[in-house]
Design goal:
By secondary structure, this protein is mainly alpha-helical. Helices cover about 80% and strands about 0% of the residues.
Length: about 140
């Protein structure tokens, strides 16, 4: 398995989360007025979500777990193989939905929902990283 690529992606996610945390204000009102800095946070979270799905795809491909047609298929395969659980799958699907809103700007981006996501959901990224690090450790034995 391409563990070094996965580890590199994990570091990139961690760096992005740190930058978001350092720049995320304590109130929605401050967040809404950030302008370009807010756009940078959106870009960082988008990049982190893409890295998470890249990691999932690498694991699926390298372990030859199945031939997916979509990211949802990959998540299902990882659940069936005990790499992630249903709760994590639901969190990852939520991340993917948020990413799609940012990328495609569906009906504009709701800054309030985005602020809530950035304030409350970064722990899900850390949980994913912990699970993947544990998985890599077991695989390398």
């Amino acid at each position: 398995m391409r563990t070094e690529i996965i580890r590199t992606k994990i570091v990139e996610i961690q760096e992005s989360l740190e930058l978001i945390r350092e720049n995320l204000p304590d109130s929605f009102e401050e967040f809404a007025s950030l302008g370009l800095l807010k756009d940078g946070m959106y870009k960082r979270i988008e990049f982190s979500i893409e890295n998470i799905f890249d990691i999932c795809a690498i694991i699926n491909t390298d372990l030859r777990l199945g031939i997916p047609r979509s990211d949802d298929d990959i998540l299902g395969i990882l659940v069936r193989n005990g790499i992630i659980d249903d709760e994590m799958r639901a969190k990852l699907k939520g991340m993917k939905g948020f990413r799609n809103i940012i990328v495609h700007r569906y009906a504009g981006i709701d800054d309030r929902l985005s602020y809530e996501f950035l304030s409350e959901r970064l722990v899900d990224f850390e949980e994913f990283i912990r699970k993947i690090n544990e998985f890599i450790k077991i695989q390398s034995k």
